[in-house]
């Protein structure tokens, strides 16, 4: 039998339901309460009207928001790229080839080593308020190594993405077409049972538009849904391909033409921005303001990976998005919760309304604005996932 808990005395509650509270997209309620029963939210509203519950948690005048939904990470890997980062920060530019370093280390690791590494970064993310995360393969690039990465990831999340097309495998450097055939053939057959999504790094030095189309189309035929690394380092066909194929998300979106922005505004593809990557590579910021003003749905995620964005902190990405990408604090918090859920085509997370999964993040601050106002400060004071307190 489940028991109910009321979390009350919440100074600011982010519900992400515009029909509640102040009527903004965040659906902010002041002096609020949330009632949780089992793993679900059953009631949200003003504290004075909360129904009775078996247990009571006093938020003591602090803010509560939905657990962050980190819809883009690469956490099945081994090794470290400290030297590459250090070199880059000393003046060399980033190229996609650095991934090969992690591929070699990942292939050499045991299953137990990969899982221990994954578990460590998941715990780190959870302490920072992330209750739902997506993660990808992409550091194996063989049938065996890609499928084992997905098997390991699937033990920890439902949001598993097959990214055999991260770069052309070093084993096929002289014959990219043969590698695309492998990714869309034997490797796809081995990986599809363990994944929900298929992804491709559509970029100069990785896969071009025709290759990306072939890879995503093959994945769709096997029941995987597309998402895509698009327009990160340069202009290219990725974003419009994403919309054409009804990808759930086009990720990065740093170099966009007006036609790219129009396509996103008219389609159902979320633009997922990953400011940790621009921060860690000293690259040009994506223009979130331009996307939002065009009516595009924007998500914010970490892109946590050992090469180009080694942060698991959604609050850090919120602060960057506000400081450098033209987002308001409200928009950034929405994008890191409801936006991430949209990028995973989920409606059960990223909001705190009846029926939603009871994923709550309690801040040691009176409002969600403090996530941007107090950058770098560990403000997460409590986390519930599926109704269970985990931090
Ligand atoms: Zn990525």
Label this structure with key terms.
391 residues; Urease, subunit C, domain 1; 2 domains; 14 helices; globular; binds zinc ion; cytoplasm; hydrolase
Describe the protein in words:
With 391 residues, the protein is α/β, with parallel strands linked by helices. The chain folds into 2 domains: 4-67 and 350-389, Urease, subunit C, domain 1; 68-344, Metal-dependent hydrolases (TIM Barrel), CATH 3.20.20. It has helices at 82-88, 99-108, 111-127, 143-154, 176-184, 186-191, 209-221, 238-244, 258-266, 275-281, 288-293, 314-324, 329-343, 370-373, and strands spanning 4-13, 29-37, 40-46, 55-66, 68-70, 130-136, 159-165, 197-202, 225-226, 228-230, 249-252, 270-273, 298-300, 360-363, 380-385, 388-389. Strands 5, 6, 7, 8, 9, 10, 11, 12 and 13 form a 9-stranded parallel sheet that branches. A 7-stranded mixed sheet has the order 3-2-1-4-14-15-16, with no helix packed on it. A hairpin with a 2-residue loop joins strand 2 (29-37) and strand 3. It is globular, with a radius of gyration of 21 Å. It starts with a strand and ends with a strand. The structure holds zinc ion (ZN). The site of zinc ion has 4 residues, from loops. Keywords: Cytoplasm, Histidine metabolism, Hydrolase, Iron, Metal-binding, Zinc.
Largest sheet: 9 strands, parallel
Q: What proportion of the residues is helical, as a percent range?
A: 25-40%
Nearest-integer average pLDDT? 96
Reading the helices and strands in chain order gives EEEEEHHHEHEHHEHEEHEHEHHEHHEHEE
**Structural class assignment:** alpha/beta
Bound molecules: zinc ion
CA-atom Rg in angstroms: 21 Å
Which spans of ≥5 residues are poorly predicted at pLDDT below 50?
none
Count of individual beta strands:
16
Topology-level CATH name of the largest domain: TIM Barrel
Roughly how many Å apart are the termini? 23 Å
Give the name of the CATH superfamily of the largest domain: Metal-dependent hydrolases
The total tally of domains equals 2
Instruction: Provide the β-strand percentage band.
Output: 15-25%
Estimate the global geometry from the Cα principal axes. Answer: globular
CATH classification class of the largest domain: Alpha Beta
Number of helices: 14
Which CATH architecture of the largest domain?
Answer: Alpha-Beta Barrel
